[in-house]
């Protein structure tokens, strides 16, 4: 199945995610973060933060909190087994903290193919806001590989 350029501009259903301290601490531990800024409220406040700050890349985890995160791909006719993580890019505009409710708005911004169509790429851009204020822009590139036995 070839991705049509007509899907550029398509949107993933928007969603909100609450940033929870426990998840921030778990993420910091799981990713080997040793700075107490990300796990200890007193350390975060001593550094001038109002709560535990959201560590880099955690926005991707919050983006996956949307209902049926692979539903967008199946609606496009993409077999989730064919998806590979390509790359991510994060642009930060403001700090986010535990207790914040963040809004995620995702748009398909590009599609292209390589290797004669055996590898297709779908690029999504997600705007993360808090009460309308820009917090971060996430760019996610997903590789869609041709599964064995599937026709191009």
TrEMBL record:
Residues 7-137 form the FAS1-like dehydratase domain. InterPro entries: FAS1-like_DH_region (IPR039569), HadA-like (IPR016709), HotDog_dom_sf (IPR029069). It holds the Pfam family FAS1_DH_region. This is MaoC family dehydratase N-terminal domain-containing protein. It comes from Streptomyces albipurpureus.
